[in-house]
Amino acid sequence: MKKNKSWLIFVAVHVIFMGVWGGLIEIPEKNGFPASLGYVVWALTMIPAAIIALAINKWRLDINKRAIVLGVLAGLLGAFGQLVLFFTLKIAPAYLVFPLLSLTPVVTILLSVVFLKEKTGRLGWVGIVVAIIAILFLSFQPPGDHTVEGHSWMFLAAIPLLAWGIQGFVMRFANETMKAESIFFYMMIGSVILIPFALNMTDFTKPINSGFKGPYLAAIIQILNAFGALCLVYAFRNGKAIIVAPMTTALSPVLTVILSLIIYAVLPHAIITVGMLFAVISAFFMGYEETKN
């Protein structure tokens, strides 16, 4: 039977949405809208995306215990990882944190190989290795003037690393027994549950931009993330986790870098440029291996 290649379309849409999101996400915060409130806006934008997903599935929702547990678990893992990241970036610079987080697909790959027995061809494995290398290159940020004492930041950074890696595995595992739309609906529930924690992290004693360039612009940007996440769930439905995870993680930053170049007129570092090239090569290898007859 000819392989279902729709996962490639969802990967492409996910990469576009998340790539643009990555290039614009800093703007509301620079305008005076806290990142913690940005999380609240993101969680709320998950609601219309979940409603549309249910509408696509003719309002059918998996309501058995297994579906609820897996869906909410996926949402909580993603949301909890995001909240911990806020704390981590307060004690360590991004150029130290994000290279570690870039190893997230490794966790997904290992779990999928061990528990789901996923396999790919030789070219696919070459693509996976090249993608991991590309992710590391793309995460490079020239050291600034920040100083970090101790290693507590590493333990904190390991939390979203594991959370997001396990989340990818859970989404793929859940797709074996439940509809993608139901998975996303419960992911939305998990994200909304943590809104009080994000509000508690917000310093309301400081001025907060409540105009268009604050929450409204954040909503426009975060909706890209919400629908990008929905596309990722669909991609995991028909694609292998060992392919989808590294491909999406490697390609999204490429678009972010290109968009940042256009917006901020800053040439990317040579290491990042090499990472972009590796990302494109890895995507070709993995995509070709998984779509050939």
Structural class: mainly alpha
Largest sheet: none
**Helicity, as a percent range:** over 70%
Low-confidence runs: none
Distance between the termini: 9 Å
Count of individual beta strands: 0
Mean of residue pLDDT? 85
N-to-C series of helices and strands: HHHHHHHHHHHHH
Q: What sort of overall outline do the alpha carbons produce when their principal axes are compared?
A: globular
**Portion in strands:** under 5%
Radius of gyration: 19 Å
Count, helices: 13
Architecture overview:
With 293 residues, this protein is an all-alpha fold. 77% of the residues lie in helices and 0% in strands. It has helices spanning 6-24, 26-30, 35-56, 65-91, 94-101, 104-115, 122-138, 152-174, 180-193, 195-201, 212-238, 241-264, 270-291.
How is the topology of this model organized?
Elements lengths: L5 H19 L1 H5 L4 H22 L8 H27 L2 H8 L2 H12 L6 H17 L13 H23 L5 H14 L1 H7 L10 H27 L2 H24 L5 H22 L2
Helix pairs in contact: 1-11, 1-12, 3-9, 3-10, 3-11, 4-8, 4-9, 5-8, 6-8, 6-12, 7-12, 7-13, 9-11, 12-13
